Amino acid sequence: MKDLFLKQPHVTLRRHIYSLLLMTFLIQFFFLEKCSDAKADAIFHPTSSASIEKKGSPVQGTPAANFGQTSTTTRGAVGTGPKPAHTKSTATDVIRAHKVKFLAGEDPNFAKKKGWPVVYPTPLPGSILPKNRIVAYYGNPLSKWMGVLGEYKKDDMLRRLKREVDRWALADPLHPVQPALHLIAVVAQGKRGKAGKYRMIMPNAIVRQVYGWAKEANALLFIDIQTGHDNIRTILPRFEWILKNPDVHLGIDPEFNLIKSRAVPGTRIGTYDASDVNYVSGYLRDLVKKYHLPPKVLTVHRFTRDALTNYRGIVLRPEVQVVINMDGWGPPWLKRDSYKDFVVAEPVEFTGFKLFYHNDTKKGDPLLTPQELLRLNPKPIFIMYQ
After folding, report:
1. 54, 24 contact by CB (below 8 A)
2. pTM of the model as a whole
3. In this predicted model, what pLDDT tens digit does every residue of 255-291 receive, in sequence order?
4. Residue 257: inside a domain, yes or no?
5. Rounded to an integer, what distance in angstroms lies between the CA atom of residue 142 and that of residue 273?
6. How many domains does the chain have?
């Protein structure tokens, strides 16, 4: 009995120690679970009051695959539709989520914070986007240096376009691919020229020639305008004769709109304001109504912050589908950064991505593949090759 009595206090002490350790463990586990839930909510439901801006009456959107909308807030605001259902997260789930690493332009949380998916007008019958993806060849048949459209003979060029179309169709079977030829119909110049506007307007015969090529390939035609020192309001009406066709669309290039700076094209980067884009889209809307056409696609090239000012003021119209096309050449990391900073960060309606066969690869970098571009968020629905 003596031995047992002497051991008993130690047994009691150990039990107290075990009890304290168990209580400490339970308290820590409970606290960790609460923290995990909070972190998980931050991951699944990121919000930013800075990204919400009221701008009059909301424009009604429509769901459509990866490009559809679940929100009725104004364009550029974080969606307020149904939040994704998810089960209770644990600390392990949070740690696993933090391990996911995205390249620039791929992070869905960043896209959501900036306002994607955006709200846009319900697509009218005959709309090309977002059901289809446009894959275009860019350039001018009078120049081998301005893009692939003029670099190769017509038949070879169309075969190459067909190969790119097939690659995209294989990479994303959910979106049928619509081929297109993107003709620079007004070319910025380094000299004043007879009109003193630092631009050259292509003869109608050249436009008709390329339009014929597009017809041969069952492709769209885009009329691309580089204004130089001219005004888009003066130039655009000159092309009503071709834009009144249902398969002809439009591109405008802020880089070569230099009215404000009066700089020589090629020496400085130009700019367009939302008011300019609104004029163009309003003009296209009127053509759609006048000639009873399906909606037009308007591409706006961009690779700098100042190339497009007051983007929140761009008016979205059911008759015109606006694509902000990531322009500019360089290595893959730089192009992804540009897409993130100048397209994802300032949402308008749809997104595009331009690839340069020569300039993107001249330092040994590979050309970005369809599979790589499809990892971007949002996924570009307009692809251009120069």
Report:
1. no
2. 0.76
3. 999 999 999 999 999 999 999 999 999 999 999 999 9
4. yes
5. 30
6. 1
